[in-house]
Amino acid sequence: MSRSGAIRPNSERLRTDWERLSRFRMEGLPGWTRRPFTPEYRAAREWLTGRMADAGLAVAIDAAGNVIGRREGKRPALAPLIIGSHTDTVMGGGRFDGIAGVLGGIEVARCLAEAQVELEHPLEVIDFLAEEPTDFGISAVGSRGMVGSLDAEAFDRRDPEGRTLAEAIALMGGRPDKIPGAIRRPGSAALYLELHIEQGPVLEREGLRLGIVSGITGIARYRLEIEGRPDHAGTTPMSLRRDALAAAADVVLALEALWAAGPDGSGVGTVGRLAVRPNAANVVPGFVELWAEMRNVDAERLAQKGQIFQEQVKTIAARRDVGVRIDAVSHEEPVPVPEPVQALLEAIVRELGQPVRRLPSYAGHDATHLAKIAPIGMLFVPSQSGRSHCPEEWTNLEDVTLGVQALGEALVRFDAQDATR
Length: 421
Ligand SMILES: [Zn+2]
Fold this sequence. Notes:
Layout: H1 11-22, H2 39-54, E1 58-61, E2 67-71, E3 81-86, H3 99-114, E4 123-128, H4 141-147, H5 165-171, E5 191-197, H6 202-205, E6 211-216, E7 218-227, E8 231-232, H7 244-260, E9 268-277, E10 283-284, E11 287-296, H8 299-320, E12 323-332, E13 335-336, H9 339-351, E14 358-361, H10 366-370, E15 376-381, H11 397-419
Parallel strand pairs: 3-4, 3-5, 5-15, 6-14
Antiparallel strand pairs: 1-2, 2-4, 6-13, 6-15, 7-11, 7-12, 8-10, 9-11
Helix pairs in contact: 1-3, 3-11, 7-8, 9-11
Bound molecules: zinc ion.
């Protein structure tokens, strides 16, 4: 029996939740900043716990610090369906990245309750801990922790305040010592769905309200230490300098050229973070810490360009007579979205009267990690002017509401189909 049409999200209710959650921001910082492991983030998640409970979900925090709202199904033995995303932001971030997916998941739970739909599977709505890159040099802490992708060494990493990641997870209500024993295994979830803003310009440019994600980009991140020699900026002749920042500038341009060579959409490379020492106007820079990253949906191309980049860095260092240390901090393989899930989302999008558009995701998501334990599906809603990770980040709440409806309908249909298999 089809129960299609059961999901009727209430955009005013979503707006109210969104306005309330947006208030949990860090004072004195740009945008709508809510960094992981801060008091503001904790307060936001406490509020979120209340909203989950109001939606009829039983709320708990798992070992990895994820807030999980659960609704039982008719057949408790079935693996759960999961809807998830995150509520932390980058520094100076916006009000939609991740947030739309978590609030959307709670709205789906409310719609199910209102329509008195009892799913066959249990449903879990998850706010994953710390999805954005953290001061520990690691992102997606909660989703990695859940599926066993947090290395043992990660727990001992320290942030600039000297706090370990294990301590930070515990502060958020997690139990880092219990994470290894609580790892969810492949097949332990029936489906993972995530609604997210596109964070790029494609949907808006094409006048579309929904996009079906075909795959999630791989990301390779490198941390470089460039060691030159600090010298007097007046008395040291240009020819005798070992300027770490000038070498870093060459690295920035080499990375840009490496990815500019391909056609549009074939990958990107960025240096987004530099620390210069001693960082004084009258001293030749003696040391630079540089973070570089590259993204591609093609695994082979990503690996190949990573190799070329490292070789180019060594060539630059030799030419400029500076020392260099390259740490391959992280390498995430691209993640395809299974064709049957894309087809399911496509059918729903069509039934909602919307044109079908599939597109890759150039941002990493919690879905990247959940793919280890379940088939994943992702829906995008448009980002105004393609802006994201900035205060101007904007998505019409009508589009978010439509996305929630599509996500919920896909969930209901999958539940019925999967349970009869
Ligand atoms: Zn996000």
